[in-house]
Each structure stands twice: as structure tokens, then as C-alpha cells.
Amino acid sequence: MNIRPLLDALDLQEDAARALADNLRAQIDGLQTRLREAETHLEHLTITRKTVSLFQPLASAGQLA
Fold first, then answer.
1. What would you measure as the largest C-alpha separation in the chain, in angstroms?
2. Is 11 helix (H, G, I), strand (E, B) or coil?
3. pTM to 2 decimals?
4. Is the pLDDT of residue 65 over 70?
5. Cα–Cα distances in Å, from 47 out to 1, 31, 38, 43, 60?
6. Is 58 in contact with 64 (CB distance < 8 Å)?
7. Coiled-coil annotation: which residues (predicted)?
8. What is the rounded CA–CA span in Å between residue 50 and residue 65?
9. Are 4 and 11 in contact (CB under 8 A)?
């Protein structure tokens, strides 16, 4: 019995699975970068909101011109 064709088919499937895994890893890396950037932007917006909120009492009292 010749199992060479079976082994060749397995090689092809392994190569395809490896390529898919590599592609998915690259996508995950890109998404992790985008997530870090979005989280940093969100942190900056939160800080800005807190800073601006400090002026709310002054604005309500008419102390800001």
C-alpha cells in the first residue's frame, strides 16, 4: 500500500492550516495595536472630561469670561 499520496495531502492541509494561523496571528496583532490606541484615546477623553468638569461650578456661577 502506497501512503505517499496521503502524506502529500496531509502536507498540503498542514501548509494551509499554518498559513491561516499565521494570517490570523497577524490580524490579532493589528487588532491589539488598534485596541491599545483606542483605549489610550478613551483615557485621554476621560481626563479631558474630568478637567473640563472642574470648570463647571465656575461657569455656573458666571465666574468664567
1. 93
2. helix
3. 0.70
4. no
5. 71, 24, 14, 6, 21
6. yes
7. 7-48
8. 20
9. no
